[in-house]
C-alpha cells in the first residue's frame, strides 16, 4: 500500500511538472534576469569639454515610513561630440567627504545640445548636487542646505555652487551598470 501511494504521488508530481513545462530543478530558479546595460563616460579632448547648466533645481521630501529626500534638476547639456546611449552623464550628491552619482543616458540628438530633467536621492549630510560628465568632472552644481522641521530636517536648494568648491572636491562614485526591463509576464506579447 505504501509503495502504491508513493508511486501515485511521484506520478502526480511528474504530470504537474510536465504540464508546467519545467523541471523540478528549474521550477525554483526564479524569474528571468533583467537586461543589463553598461553605460560609458563620454571622453573629450583637453581642447574641448562638455558643459551643463541648471535652469531649475528643487528639493522634495516624501514620507514612506521615514522621510525620503530628493533633488530635482533640469537644464541643458552641451557635449563635446555627438553622444547617445550607452554614453551617460550623472547627477551626483556630495556629503561630508564623499560623492555618489546616478547615471542617466544621453538622449539621442543630431546636435550637441540636450535638455535633461532628473532626480537623485539625497540624505541629511548632503551639501551639494552636481551634473557630472564623469566621476571627477563637474559641469554645474547647486548647494543644498537643511532647515529644521517638525520631524527632523528638510532640504532646500541654496543656489549655484562653483564646480571647484571644497564641498564637491571628491570623486563621485557612480555605478555605470544599469538593470533595465524585467521579467516578462506570461501572455504579454508587447513586453519582450
Automatic annotation (TrEMBL):
It comes from the Bacteria. The lineage of its organism: Bacteria, Bacillati, Actinomycetota, Actinomycetes, Micromonosporales. Keywords: Signal. Residues 1-27 form the signal peptide. This is Secreted protein.
Amino acid at each position: 500500500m505504501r509503495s502504491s501511494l508513493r508511486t501515485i504521488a511521484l506520478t502526480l508530481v511528474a504530470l504537474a511538472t510536465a504540464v508546467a513545462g519545467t523541471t523540478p530543478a528549474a521550477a525554483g530558479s526564479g524569474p528571468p534576469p533583467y537586461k543589463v546595460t553598461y553605460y560609458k563616460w563620454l571622453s573629450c579632448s583637453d581642447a574641448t569639454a562638455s558643459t551643463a547648466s541648471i535652469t531649475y533645481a528643487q528639493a522634495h521630501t516624501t514620507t514612506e515610513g521615514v522621510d525620503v529626500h530628493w533633488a530635482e534638476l533640469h537644464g541643458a547639456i552641451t557635449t563635446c561630440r555627438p553622444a547617445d546611449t550607452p554614453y551617460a552623464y550623472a547627477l551626483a550628491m556630495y556629503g561630508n567627504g564623499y560623492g555618489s552619482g546616478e547615471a542617466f543616458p544621453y538622449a539621442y540628438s543630431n546636435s550637441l545640445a540636450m535638455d535633461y530633467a532628473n532626480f537623485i536621492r539625497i540624505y541629511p549630510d548632503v551639501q551639494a548636487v552636481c551634473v557630472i560628465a564623469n566621476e571627477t568632472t563637474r559641469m554645474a552644481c547647486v548647494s543644498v542646505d537643511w532647515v529644521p522641521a517638525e520631524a527632523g530636517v528638510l532640504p532646500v536648494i541654496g543656489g549655484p555652487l562653483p564646480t571647484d568648491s571644497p564641498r564637491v572636491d571628491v570623486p563621485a562614485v557612480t555605478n555605470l551598470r544599469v538593470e533595465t526591463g524585467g521579467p516578462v509576464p506570461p501572455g504579454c506579447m508587447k513586453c519582450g
